[in-house]
Design brief:
heterotrimer; A alpha/beta; B alpha/beta; C alpha/beta; A: alpha/beta; Aldehyde Dehydrogenase, Chain A, domain 1; Aldehyde Dehydrogenase, Chain A, domain 2; seven-stranded mixed β-sheet; six-stranded mixed β-sheet; 22 strands; C: alpha/beta; TIM Barrel; 46% helix; 10% strand
Chain lengths: 484, 293, 308
């Protein structure tokens, strides 16, 4: 084996240019078409999770601010937005989409700075999808009667929207675009760790000339969100986040007229059958769990692989993991960026130690993990069972559990044996088998021979405790209308 | 000599069988004239539990029936009702409904079943979609039944309120546990008897008689119930239902409709108890061959 | 390394067991390679590796000794004004030109590869193909680039294809055998994978995408699929097989992405001309221009780099 020498050829750092990006020292609330100081006069820091350094001060909105925002939204709804024709509404939304496209790279860079996600993803996935979402829904604004045959469509009023930190601008787009298209006005609260792109979007919305009060952005923590949920004059709550908080919201609005859509957690199974295109399946596993550091509600966090190919798949998977580049989110070669916050890193570490305590076998990639900032090495656990904590509970990090199965029935049972039902992956070359599985899996999104694909035209949302309502596509309109 | 009439024993309906309540209890509702309607089973929490178990067991099979087959079965239910029309009318009258109203309620119930029978194999043609995604994937959405549904008619009618909720719920493949009208339970059990002879698999519809305030809470909080169909306007009940949703993200659908309105039926009553499932699959694009060859 | 010279004894090989390949998935994987940003030192190192992996090729009906000699001179002297550059790996010619080429590159370390087996169509009897191969080997070829019988392959006659490769391997003696699949004629990636497996198991030292006469040739998708076949064979047997994409790789960026793919699929062990080659005629100058640009920061003109 004399010829087997290793040539060392590493990728030099390829940092994204940040010189054109402007982050202000301080961001105010966006209420009634103006950037205003918070009533509390309090600000909090948003930090870059890859360096731990402060990026900007962010206004801490309280109940009074939320009230102002809701009033502005109500006023805009009654006097302007609900009276405007769908076609005109659509044109505003198109305009927002275009302005976002023009500033796409800036948005991507800020997103990566603030959230820790790799620039490759914010640039190629988050931001383009966010723009496209506005484009898609813009076109619906004057065509709503086609979406609901035999009914008259009416808007709801003021929508309170609370979005998570894993896809900050994309989730803002998922919430804002359909709500505007259907004629609602908005009070939206971005997550406390990732407010920057929402504020940039507020600037874009401001620049678009959208009437004051139609979209209001109130930054803050959980209590700010609670103020939105509990406000009497909010007609609709749209929330994306943990199942725990989703249940609190559901309880809080019990007995009120508020309509809710909740897009919550998941523990989705990615099922590899023996006849699958294995190399592409391995890629699907990687995409499924390491995309966005595993901070994905529909992450394929439970790998179910048929025993006859398990060794092969695990071998291929481990090798593929070794090629993942973990590090600076702004480096164009980074595959896995920073964990969003210290809190989340602690949660991931806690689950990993539970996994080890419960006797699972851990494998992590060997590359160097940056010392500063919040990083976690892509990790897989074998020797786990359906009853293992790390198999049952959502970790929301780059941690995969690997179980094997023998028959298709066993795979379906194991996949469905969960309180969640957000997504599932199925890998097999046989068409009839795909349909057997996709029909029987209890999940709102099923990826067959692919994983973690998103599109504005494609409805997204879960079964069971993964929430209710759909976002995206024709079905996503339903969340923001009442039918007469 | 006049023949002695044989009185009917009203029992609850669980898993296609007619057991008595496990509690052995009964109640005797009276009509407006003060006549006793009969000894009606006073179902317990445990009956609720048993009914949910039966509904869950029946779910997979019912949901996987072909839509066409479900359609035929719903039509068959209507046929059975038509055959028992006189009995339903008698029961309605006995429970205090005028002859004319009883007649139209039964006819409306039968027609409503036929309406929903026709929907079974059309739901996905109207509500499903092929979604034109930008990447090289085939992407489509279909509706699927949510699962086990708790059906709570408002209790002001004996038959139409129940039919108006049960039919859309089961049309898409859900199974259900129904709380019959406390004051007017007779038609629900006769309806169960029609179901038992109309090819509906056991467990698809389970019907319990008894006290609503005793059964509603265990049904609404049951972790294996996926959705609730509630008709009524009782603030306390609605709050309790909404709160119970926080346990397992139960889908709560609330109605205040006049079911005797002929138009009070449509596809959206069906899709209220459906989930949208979206499936992706790659489309291989090979070589230079295009579809305009 | 215990490899039989000539026919390998792979009794359990069955081409119908070749893995299926999902093309859309491959396209996604490949786009990830293309998104690798190769800058500065890693770019310079990569470009020099590429030069050293090139099989400088002329395969034309109008080839003459004169043309071949000039190409061989270029192979040895890529750009003398810039010191420290490697030579290309080999020159690739028709059998009739092997003697000329061999003489022209003598002492330089540059190998001589010869196409054979009725290149490029392969539509000739085995006897002719064997004679063709033996002639090239006896003329001094270090490497033989054979073509498979695509017609027989597409007909499902896998045993024929396998036996033919094995027979040619036998005739190669010490020369290393590259097996050209002509993937542009196989069309699907499933067939690319199957043909790769057949070639590897039948005795190929290298598998090669294309003759250069058919388009599409060495697409990243095809090369990736073949690399996975090499990877799987290595996992099973511990035996390394070489890879040669040929045709259509005319610029540095594409060549760098090929290297990225080799590194990430097979590993750094394959990053030498012992195991990886580019079959190309115009690639070398583009790489040279890129090297100069990377070193000096100044964009280059073709007039300063010798053709052929």
């Amino acid at each position: 084996m004399a010829k087997e020498k290793n040539i060392s050829w590493d990728y030099s750092p390829a940092p994204e240019n940040t010189s054109h990006v402007k982050v202000k020292e301080r961001y105010e609330l966006y209420i009634d078409g103006k950037f205003v100081k918070p009533e509390s006069a309090k600000y909090f820091d948003t930090v870059s999770p890859s360096t731990g350094k402060k990026l900007a001060s962010i206004a801490y909105g309280n109940e009074k601010d939320v009230d102002k925002a809701v009033k502005a939204a109500r006023n805009a709804y009654v006097n302007i937005w609900s009276k405007m024709s769908g076609a005109e509404r659509g044109k505003y939304i198109y305009r927002i989409a275009r302005l976002m496209q023009e500033r796409a790279r800036e948005l991507s860079v800020i997103e990566s700075m603030d959230s820790g996600k790799a620039i490759r993803e914010s640039r190629d996935v988050d931001v383009p999808l966010a723009c496209n979402h506005f484009f898609y829904y813009a076109g619906w604004a004057d065509k709503l009667e086609y979406a609901f045959p035999n009914r008259k469509v009416e808007s709801l009023g003021v929508a309170g929207q609370i979005i998570p930190w894993n896809f900050p601008i994309l989730m803002a787009a998922w919430k804002i675009a359909p709500a505007l298209a259907t004629g609602n006005t908005i009070v939206i609260k971005p997550a406390e760790t990732t407010p920057l792109t929402a504020m940039k979007l507020a600037e874009i919305i401001h620049d678009s000339g959208l009437p004051a009060g139609v979209v209001n952005v109130v930054t803050g923590y959980g209590d700010t969100g609670a103020a939105i949920v509990n406000h009497n004059d909010v007609d609709k709550i749209a929330f994306t986040g943990s199942t725990g908080v989703g249940k609190i919201i559901q309880k809080a609005i019990a007995g009120t007229k508020k309509k809710a859509t909740l897009e919550l957690g998941g523990k989705s199974a990615n099922i590899i059958l023996e006849d699958a295109p294995l190399d592409q399946a391995v890629e699907g596993i990687i995409n499924g769990i390491f995309f966005n550091q595993g901070h994905v509600c529909c992450a394929g966090s439970r790998l179910l692989v048929q025993e006859s190919v398990a060794d092969k798949v695990i071998r291929k998977l481990k090798r593929r993991m070794e090629t993942l580049v973990v590090g600076d989110p702004l480096d164009k070669n980074t595959d896995v960026g920073a964990i969003n916050s210290k809190e989340q890193l602690d949660i991931i570490k806690k689950y990993v130690s539970i996994g080890l305590e419960e006797g699972a076998t851990m494998h992590q990639i060997s590359c160097n993990i940056p010392k500063n900032g919040y990083f976690f090495a892509p990790t897989i656990f074998t020797d786990v069972a359906q009853s293992s904590t790390i198999v049952k509970e959502e970790i929301f990090g780059p941690v995969l559990t690997v179980q094997t199965f023998r028959t298709v029935d066993e795979a379906i049972q194991k996949a469905n044996n969960s309180e969640y039902g957000l997504a599932a992956g199925v890998w097999t070359d046989k068409g009839s088998r795909i349909f057997n599985l996709t029909t029987k899996l209890n999940a709102g999104v099923i990826w067959a021979n692919t994983y973690n694909k998103f599109d504005p035209a494609s409805p997204f949302g879960g079964y069971k405790e993964s929430g209710f309502g759909r976002e995206g596509g024709l079905h996503g309109l339903n969340a923001y209308v009442k039918l007469r | 000599m006049e023949r002695l009439e044989v009185l009917k024993t009203y029992k609850i309906y669980i898993g296609g069988k007619f057991p008595r309540t496990e509690s052995g209890r009964y109640y005797t509702p009276e009509n407006k004239k003060g006549e006793q309607l009969g000894n009606i089973c006073l179902a317990s929490r445990k009956d609720v539990r048993n009914a949910v178990v039966a509904a869950r067991k029946a779910f997979g099979g019912w949901a996987e029936r072909s839509a066409f087959n479900r359609s035929q079965i719903l039509y068959r239910i209507a046929e059975m009702l038509e055959g028992r029309k006189a009995q339903f009318i008698d029961e309605l009258i006995f429970q205090g409904v005028s002859h004319k109203e009883a007649n139209s309620e039964v006819e409306m119930s039968i027609d409503r079943l036929i309406y929903y029978a026709g929907w079974c194999d059309k739901i996905n043609q109207v509500m499903g979609s092929v979604n034109p995604v930008s990447s090289s994937h085939f992407n489509f959405s279909v509706t699927e039944p949510t699962g086990v549904v708790g059906v709570v008619p408002d209790g002001s009618s004996s038959l139409i309120g129940l039919i108006s909720l049960v039919a859309p719920v089961i049309a898409s493949g859900n199974t259900c546990v129904v709380l019959s009208s406390e004051a007017m339970p007779l038609c629900s059990i006769t309806f169960a008897e029609a179901l038992a002879t109309s090819d509906v698999p056991g467990g698809v519809v389970n019907i319990l008689t008894g006290m609503r305030n005793e059964m509603l809470q265990p049904l609404a909080t049951h972790m294996d119930v996926n959705a609730m169909a509630y008709a009524g306007n009782k603030t306390e009940e609605i709050k309790m239902l909404d709160e119970s949703s926080a346990l397992n993200l139960k889908r709560i659908n609330k109605y205040q409709e006049n079911w005797m309105n002929r138009d009070m039926q449509d596809l959206y009553f069906i899709t209220d108890f459906c989930e949208v499932k979206t499936t992706w699959h790659p489309i291989e694009n090979i070589g230079g061959a295009t579809s305009n060859y | 390394m215990n490899r039989d010279k000539g026919m390998r004894k792979d009794f359990f090989f069955d081409p119908s067991n070749s893995p299926v390949v999902d093309k859309v998935g491959v396209e996604e994987r490949v786009s990830r390679f293309q998104k690798r940003s190769i800058k500065k030192e890693s770019k310079l190192q990569g470009l020099k590796m590429i030069l050293n992996m090139i099989d400088l090729t002329t395969l034309e009906g109008k080839d003459t000794e004169g043309k071949v000699k000039q190409m061989c001179f270029k192979a040895k002297h890529l750009h003398d004004s810039y010191p420290g550059l490697p030579t290309v790996a080999a020159v690739c010619v028709y059998p009739s030109m092997v003697k000329t080429a061999k003489l022209a590159v003598r002492g330089s370390g540059v190998k001589v590869a010869s196409v054979s087996t009725a290149f490029p169509s392969g539509q000739a009897p085995l006897e002719v193909k064997l004679t063709d191969t033996k002639f090239a080997v006896e003329s001094g070829a270090d490497e033989i680039d054979m073509v498979i019988s695509r017609g027989r392959f597409l007909k499902g006659d896998y045993n024929f294809v396998y036996d033919e490769i094995a027979a040619i391997k036998n005739a190669c003696g010490k020369a290393r055998l590259k097996v050209i699949l002509e993937t542009g004629e196989l069309v699907t990636l499933d067939d690319v994978r199957k043909a790769s497996d057949i070639a590897i198991h039948a005795g190929a030292d290298f598998i090669k995408t294309s003759t250069g006469k058919i388009s599409p040739a060495a697409t990243l998708q095809v090369t990736y699929t073949m690399l996975e076949a090499i990877r799987d064979y290595y996992d099973e047997t511990g035996i390394m097989i070489g890879m040669k994409p040929a045709g259509g790789i005319s610029n540095s960026k594409l060549a760098l992405h090929n290297l990225v793919m080799v590194k990430e699929v097979l590993g750094s062990m394959w990053l030498s001309n012992e195991w990886f080659r580019f079959g190309a005629s115009s690639l070398a100058n583009d790489v040279l221009m890129q090297i100069l640009k990377t070193e000096t920061g100044i964009y280059q003109s073709g007039d300063y780099f010798s053709i052929d």
